[in-house]
Write a structure and sequence with these properties.
The complex is a heterodimer of chains A (201) and B (176). With 201 residues, chain A is mainly α. Helix content of chain A is 79%, strand content 0%. Chain B is mainly alpha-helical.
């Protein structure tokens, strides 16, 4: 994961901050737990478990892994489970994390589908769910803030401008995602390339 | 491709959709609505809106709205088929791409590309937080709840589940 592979090649690639990699069943359980806790999205809980609780990845490694999964097609967090699990324990680890993430909530969702088909909606349930969703947005804001801190600490102005640009284009102006990414991805890769060349020189 | 079997229709629809769903499940919701309501008439508009709310507020990845659509079409086998079709192909793709990028090589491009995507990814997340906040925080109490949770979760390592439970209680009491 180090930015330049040349110097990293001469040292073992397990940084000191890491915990030892978990077993397959532990991976399954960890992803089942973060998935079941993940009301309104699992990312918050995945970051909490992987970075803060188990220390399986550093904050920067998590950002890079998530960014990769974010820009590949498909549900990000499902991609993340497969990529993360396989980085720790090979393809079996990927499958364990994938199954842990999806199996329990799929069963719950199926039960909810059956209940919904029978009873439709109840007002009290709606009120409770509305309160939960407000809190869930707060959690999302907090996880965005925490993912931002490694970037803010580096005081990398160009990177911060890129981040704010995407936020404004999508969040405020509501421009179409594809168009924004079509401009932002080449731009960011170009800028990163130029900055690294300047540092190397 | 025009088989009568609803399971096959689910698998081909969601398998294909997932491969074009760049930006995650939230980005695919308008397309899901178009296909489930307008094209195939699997659900009514209201059923789709309810399914979306249930998926948002239930544990697990939000993409599991496809489980609910699958159930509406073909019962339990439909629920399982839709879920796997939406999740498995792209997860395998992600596995191969990630292995490709992390193969030890002289090239510095994989690291560079991943690093370049980080600020864009965080910007996107911040944008969806803003869009979600605009749809859920319709009064001052709701806005305050969201802001309080954001601050507490940023400065402490409290288990996020407690904050969600607190939100549920406030909703139960009719405060937000």
């Amino acid at each position: 994961m180090s930015p330049d592979s040349a110097p990293a090649a001469q040292e073992p690639d397990i940084p000191a901050a890491h915990a030892p990699p978990p077993g397959l069943f532990a991976l399954f359980l960890a992803f089942a737990r973060m998935s079941l806790a993940g009301f309104g999205g699992v990312l918050v809980f995945a970051r909490h478990a992987i970075v803060d609780q188990h220390r399986w990845m550093t904050a920067d490694e998590f950002n890079e892994t998530f960014a990769l999964c974010h820009f590949l097609p498909g549900p990000n967090i499902v991609n993340l489970s497969m990529v993360f699990g396989s980085r720790l324990r090979g393809i079996a680890g990927g499958v364990a994390a994938f199954a842990g993430l999806l199996l329990p909530p799929t069963l719950i969702m199926t039960v909810l589908a059956i209940i919904y088909a029978r009873f439709g909606d109840v007002d009290l349930l709606r009120r409770i769910l509305a309160g939960i969703s407000c809190a869930a947005v707060g959690l999302l804001i907090a996880v965005v803030f925490r993912m931002m801190t490694p970037l803010l600490k580096r005081m990398d102005v160009v990177v911060i401008i890129l981040m704010l640009g995407v936020f404004t284009a999508i969040g405020v102006f509501r421009w179409p995602l594809q168009a924004v990414l079509l401009v932002a991805i080449p731009l960011s890769i170009g800028v990163t390339f130029l900055m690294r060349r300047k540092v190397a020189a | 491709m025009n088989s009568e079997n609803p399971i096959w229709a689910l698998i081909s629809t969601f398998g294909l959709m997932s491969l074009f769903a760049v930006g995650g499940a939230a980005a695919a919701v308008p397309e899901m609505h178009r296909i489930a309501v307008d094209v195939h008439h699997w659900m009514t508009d209201k059923q789709f809106a309810d399914a979306y709310a249930i998926a948002q507020l239930s544990p697990g990845p939000n993409v599991l709205i496809v489980t609910l659509i699958g159930y509406a079409v073909a019962g339990i086998p439909g629920a399982l088929a839709a879920t796997l079709a939406m999740c498995l192909p792209t997860a395998l793709l992600a596995y191969y791409v990630s292995r490709l990028l992390n193969r030890p090589s002289q090239s510095r491009w994989p690291g560079l590309i991943q690093a370049a995507l980080v600020p864009l990814s965080i910007g996107l997340m911040a944008a969806s937080a803003l869009i979600l906040a605009q749809s859920t925080d319709r009064n001052i109490a709701a806005l305050l709840l969201t802001a309080t949770v954001a601050v507490i979760a940023s400065v402490s390592r409290i288990n996020p589940l407690w904050l969600l439970l607190a939100g549920g209680l406030l909703g139960f009491a009719g405060i937000v």
